[in-house]
Automatic annotation (TrEMBL):
UniProt source species: Paramicrobacterium agarici
PANTHER family the UniProt entry points to: MANNOSYL-D-GLYCERATE TRANSPORT/METABOLISM SYSTEM REPRESSOR MNGR-RELATED (PTHR44846), MANNOSYL-D-GLYCERATE TRANSPORT_METABOLISM SYSTEM REPRESSOR MNGR-RELATED (PTHR44846:SF1)
InterPro entries listed in its UniProt record: Bact_HTH_transcr_reg, Chorismate_lyase_/UTRA_dom_sf, Tscrpt_reg_HTH_GntR, UTRA, WH-like_DNA-bd_sf, WH_DNA-bd_sf
PROSITE patterns the record matches: HTH_GNTR
Keywords: DNA-binding, Transcription, Transcription regulation
Protein name as catalogued: GntR family transcriptional regulator
Gene3D superfamilies to which the protein is assigned, alphabetical: Chorismate lyase-like (3.40.1410.10), Winged helix-like DNA-binding domain superfamily/Winged helix DNA-binding domain (1.10.10.10)
Domain HTH gntR-type intervals: 3-71
GO MF term list: DNA binding; DNA-binding transcription factor activity
GO BP: negative regulation of DNA-templated transcription
Amino acid sequence: MTLPLYQKIRTEIEERIQSGELAPGAKVPTEAELQSAHGVSRSVAQRALNDLAQAGLVVRHKRLGTHVAEGARQVNLLRSVGPKVGSAGIPGRLSVVSAEVVSANAAEVELPGIEGDEPVVQLVRVRHDLDDTPVVVEVAAVPFQLSPQLLNENLETFAVLEHFAAIGVSVARSRMYFDALLLENTHAELLGIDPGVAILRRRRHMWQPNGQIAESTAYYLRPGFIDLYLEYTDQG
C-alpha cells in the first residue's frame, strides 16, 4: 500500500526530529518550502505539519512559523491504541527475528477468545532507532484465518492496521495494557542489554466489530528510549 504524500512528508520530518537533526526549538520547513521540495499542493503540506502538531512533535504559531516542540522525543499513545488514528510514528528500521504459524497456546502473547489449538501468525521484530540501536522488541500475533497470506508480505515494513485496511478487516475496538517487569534473557539479547533490568512492556489488543480478536501485540521498550504520554486535542 502506497503511503499518502502527507504521511511521507510527516515521516521524513519526524525522522529528522528523532535523530536530533532538528532539535527542540528548531524551525521546521514552511508549507511553501515543503510544496517546493516535494511538488505537492498547499493542502498536503499543511496536513503534514498539522499531523506533526497533533502528535506533539511541533508547535505552530501564526507569523512565527512551525518549530520542534520541547520534549519531542515522545510518543502519544493515542496514536498506538486508536484504530482510526494511525501509527505511533517511531522512525527507524525493523528487523525480523522470526515469522511463523503457531498454535494460539504456543504464542508469546495472549489472544483472548481464541481456542488454544487455533493457528495464529506470530511475528517477532526489533525496532532500531536512526543510530541503529535496538530500542523495541515487538511480538505480534494475528489469527491465521484473518490473513492466511500475511507471511508473504514484506515483514520489514509490515504495519498491521494498513494490512487490515488493504484486506478488508475492520477494527472496532483497541485496548492497551502496561506492565513493569524484569527483562528476561531472550528479549534482553535482542535489545543488547543485560537481563534483569526493569523495563516497561506495553500490550495492545484489537477486536473486530463482531467481538473477535484481530491482533495482539507486546512491545518491550528499551529503558530511557522514549517518553510515552497521552494527549487529546479537541478538534471541534
